[in-house]
Amino acid sequence: MENVVRAWVDGWIVSRGAAPPVVETWGYTIDVGLPGHVGRHVFAGTDDAVREADVREVTGAVTGVGTQLKVFAEPARVVPWLGPGWEPFGSGDYLMTARLVPGGAVAVPDGYRLRTWTAGGVFRCLVTDSGGSFAARGQIAVTGATAVVDQIETDAAHRRRGLGAVVMRTLAAEGAALGAETGVLACTPEGRLLYEAVGWSVRAP
C-alpha cells in the first residue's frame, strides 16, 4: 500500500506545483508554499500501519499555522493522537485507485461545454454552462505508469447532472492516452460515491 501512497504523492506535487517530497521515516514532508497551506505531512502507511508514536511526534513538533496532515486511516483512531491546535483536515479521506483505459469522446449533457488544455505537465478540463459560468472541473497529472486525479469540483447549482462523471471519464481517458495504467486519488466521503460510480475502488482506509 505504501507504493500507492507514494504514487499519489508523486502525482499530487505535479498537480499542485509543490516541492519534491522529503522522505521521512514515517512518510513524506511536502512544501506547498501557499498562505493557507504552507506544507503537508503524508503518512506512507495506511490503516493499522499508522503508528500512534509517529502521529504524536509529527503533530507535536509542528506548531505553525498552515501545515496539513494526510493520513489514510480511520479518523476515530488517528484524531485522538493529534497534538494541540491540530485540526483533522482530510482525516476522513479515502485513497482510491482505478485501471485507466483509453476511451473515445465523452458525451457532454445539453447546455454545457467541455474545454481541455495542458499546462505544466497537468491536463485540465473545465465544464461551463451555456452562458459561460463555471459548472465543473478537474485535472490529472501523469507520472509514469500512474496518474493522480485532483481538484475535482462541481458547482452546487450544477450537481446531479452527470458533470462529475464527464470530468472523471475525460481525465481517465487522457491519462491512459499518456501512458498511465493506474489512476490514484484522495477524496472525501462525499466524493467517494461519485468515484465508485465510475469504476474506482477504495484502497484505504
Summarize the entry for a quick read.
The chain is of the alpha+beta class and 205 residues long.
For the record, the CATH class of the largest domain is: Alpha Beta
**Strand order within the widest beta sheet:** 6-7-8-9-10-5-11
Relative strand content = 35-45%
* Helix-strand makeup class: alpha+beta
Do you know the CATH topology of the largest domain?
Answer: Aminopeptidase
Sequence stretches where pLDDT stays below 50 over 5 or more residues: none
- Ends: how far apart? 11 Å
- Please indicate the count of domains: 2
Residue-averaged pLDDT, rounded? 94
> How many β-strand stretches?
11
Shape: globular
How big is the Rg?
17 Å
If helices are DSSP runs of H or I spanning 4 or more residues, what is the number of helices? Answer: 5
Q: Element order, helices and strands? A: HEEEHEHEEEEEHEHE
Helicity, as a percent range: 25-40%
Query: For the report, how would you describe the main beta sheet?
Result: 7 strands, mixed
The CATH architecture term of the largest domain is 3-Layer(aba) Sandwich
Structure description:
There is one protein chain. This protein has helices at 2-16, 52-61, 75-78, 163-177, 189-197; strands at 22-23, 27-34, 37-46, 67-72, 94-99, 112-119, 122-129, 134-143, 146-154, 182-187, 201-204. Helices cover 26% and strands 38% of the residues. It folds into two domains: 4-89; 97-204, Aminopeptidase, CATH 3.40.630.30. It has 205 residues and is of the alpha+beta class. The chain is built from five helices and eleven strands. The radius of gyration is 17 Å and the shape is globular.
